[in-house]
Amino acid sequence: MSKPMRHFLAVSLVGLWVVLLSLIFVYRQINNHNLHNHFDAHNRVVAIMVRDALLQTGLHTLLDPAVGIKEKTAIFTDIDGALRSLLRRVPVLKVKIYDLNGLTVYSTDWAQIGEDASGNVGVITALAGDSRSDVVYRDQLNSFDGVVEHRDIHQQYVPILDPRNDAVEGAFEIYSDVTPLLVRRREQGLFLILVLTVIMLSFFVAQYLVFRRTDQKLTEESAGREAHLRELEAIKADLERQVRERTAEIEKGRTFLQSIIDGIGSPLLVIRPDLTVSLMNKAARDNKPRDWPADQVLHCYQLSHRRDEPCSGEDHPCSFAAVLQHRRMARVRHTHYDADGNPRIVDLLSTPLFEPNGDLHGVIELEHDVTEMVRMQAGLSESEARLQAIMDHVPDAIFTLAHDGSVRTANRAAVTMFGDDGRSLVGESFRGYFRNGSASAVFQGPASTPDPGSSEEVEMFHADRNAFPAEVWVGDIVSAQEQGYIAVVRDISQRRKAMEELEKTRQQYFHQEKMAAIGHLAAGILHEVGNPIYAITGAVSELHRICLSDEFVDHGASNDIVRSTEMIDQQINRLSKITRDIADFASPRPGERELLDLNGLLQSTARLLSYDRRFRNVNLGLKLDPGLPAIVGIADQLVQLVMNLLINAMDACRAKANGTSEIQLSSRRDGEGVAVTVSDNGIGMSVDVIARSTEPFFTTKTTGSGTGLGLSLCDSIANAHCGRLAIQSVVGEGTTVVLWLPIDCEKEEQKIRQEGRGKQP
Known about the structure:
The protein is 48% helix and 20% strand. The strands form 5 sheets. A 5-stranded antiparallel β-sheet has the order 2-1-5-4-3. The chain is flat. The chain folds into 5 domains: 3-184, PAS domain (Beta-Lactamase), CATH 3.30.450.20; 262-369, Beta-Lactamase (2-Layer Sandwich); 377-491, Beta-Lactamase (2-Layer Sandwich); 497-577, no CATH class; 596-759, Histidine kinase-like ATPase, C-terminal domain (Heat Shock Protein 90, 2-Layer Sandwich). The protein has 18 helices and 22 strands. It is an alpha+beta fold.
């Protein structure tokens, strides 16, 4: 028996048994699945039949946990009789009925009535509205009841649904005897195994016979191939003789061709399709590396580039690839090396060599040294690049313009300022970068011609069509060919912003000086007013004491006099409180951060503004969080911030045509800080006004009614305290401003610095 035959027998027998066992396993799985499905469907139908039959004999009463034992005992005989009569017609061994508490209220085995099955998984599943079943084989443990069964049974738990509303009233446990069915299944399985075994053995015998016949034929063919191989070896020897003769003729022709190309002064190579050099003239051999063996086969890239891989890419495109692609002469420029390793820049002219049948045999590559010419061109390009680099490092946008104002060149700053997605500006109209009406300051000549020597401040557009202020200077460029212009554009947005910031700082300084002067003046006035108030207070107290004395009462003192003295005393106390608040507000405080009672600061500020006659018709309400923690800040700045917010709210309320003016000042804890909210029911603000509300000198009030520094100053103070302002407003309904301040400003500053360092690349 041959070796392939033995392998076939071993593999076939193993495969036969694997297939047979796999089919048996699949058959058993399908039978088990069908058995479960059959009895699940059967027992569900039985459950419905039993439920419908027992409903007429008091099933609801039996399942109701609230019904007593006597009532259930009265109907037990009827239920038992009806159930046993029904079960005589179906293959069911035993039936149990459970109420919603898992208690066995009925069983065909009376000894099991009253058992508690609340921990049974099947009962729990059925009471939850689902069905659960399992097949328990003889002498195996019942996983639901924990007992060993002595026959093959199918056990299923089915929910009892109320036909009126499909609510679960209890559960059935139905036992079915599956022993006869399992016996029939085993008999069928044995028969199937026998049939499959016969079929597989028949198939194996047929395969064996076929393989044996094939093996015999292969042995005969192998002997024939060996005889044919001997004939081929004889033919090979004859061909080798012919090749030697032909090679001698070719070598003679090659020697003649070599003598011809050696007379060409420029290096010349004949290159095969595999990029090996088949022929080269003397000029090319003179460039060969001196340390290379004379008989070593060279590739063209080894000879010219001193590299171990073919040329590729834009810097060194392969001329052979260009010839192969287009099937015509190609010209490229490379950097080659001479015998001493010195670089040379050459132009390569590659001409294709075709076979008689049209196939490409190779290329003739002739090179011309253009090193000196390239060096001169590089010097010119370097000068141009140096000029462009200087222009690109100028922060201002620089254009060269044609006579009609179109762009010829633009530096990097110009592309950044006016370009979009890196697009070139060449050919565009310089006039198109100006905002409507602004171009006339520069283009004072013809419609599209700049006015040389002019320098103007105009409005221009960025690439995103956002306007910005710019200073534009235009000068002449005179050449022999054509007149042109040079234009320099400088973005002065930062300069204007700096001027606005300077003006804002100057206004804040003037405001602080004015407030300081008012403070000194108020302190002097309050000192002068305070002395008369103290004198009047003492006199009124004495007068009130006299009016209440027995002597004065005996002389018929009027109650009106007593009430008048009390009223005078109350008003004097109120006046004293006002003077104290004003004195406290006007007194200088330290400009450094300190621990502050924010609620007290809000109360004193609101109380001080309540003396303002503009607040007389405004309901100013306070809603302060009593558990608000102390914060670190500068008291004067926070008072000024809150006062500005309240005055803005008052102005918004007074601008309404009618209605009650309401302002709510509240405080609350918010995360790592506190939040102060000022709400009003004034005229409100539009989205555009909200976006510009914190800009310096922006105001919606009439000229002379406001400087536009209120909310800008509030925003600056909030930022200085590491806080922030949030504004929400609806036109016609009112505005809500939320000021968030950290409890510890220094800790918040440190956190912001750490986050800033974490975002750095």
